[in-house]
Amino acid sequence: MSKASHQQALYELICRYAQAVDQRDWAVLSRLFTPEATLKGPGFSFDGVSAIVEGMNGLGHYSKTQHHIHNHLAEVDGLQASAETYCVANHIYETEGIERKLDWGIRYRDRFACMDGIWHFTYRELLLDWSQDLPLRGAPHETR
């Protein structure tokens, strides 16, 4: 497999992660990590696939999420790799009868291992660069 092929496979792995999280497909998510992998971010750290899946279930309090993958640079060294990937994650939820959208500007710092020709996350760290929380739709205007 060429370096470009490995880099493409890593990008596809990151996209599969975003899709699995947004679709709440925990079976797919669990297959993307090595058994001893770690997923950490602001205020959380999950060690092992079961803890990762259980922890990601916390997204259930959002009615929808969308993770938009942007800049992605990967370095491949044999059967190991690392990458930094930018993402904007949208989280839709309701509070006090108002639908809101929480946006996160994320940088993922990842490490990977290739096992039997398939890349898996061994370590994923979510760095939160910025966030904003706004009503999803404008507030109704009062009429006088």
Can you lay out the helices and strands and say which pair or pack?
Blueprint: H1 3-22, H2 26-31, E1 33-41, E2 44-47, H3 49-56, E3 64-77, E4 80-95, E5 98-115, E6 118-135
Protein name: Nuclear transport factor 2 family protein
Pfam families: SnoaL_4
Domain SnoaL-like: 7-124
Structural features, described:
There is one protein chain. With 144 residues, the chain is an alpha+beta fold. It contains 3 helices and 6 strands. It has helices at residues 3-22, 26-31, 49-56, and strands at 33-41, 44-47, 64-77, 80-95, 98-115, 118-135. A hairpin with a 2-residue loop joins strand 4 and strand 5. The longest helix is centred in the N-terminal third of the chain and has 20 residues, at 3-22. The protein starts with a helix and ends in a 9-residue tail after the last strand. The model has no long low-confidence stretch (mean pLDDT 94). This is Nuclear transport factor 2 family protein. Residues 7-124 form the SnoaL-like domain.
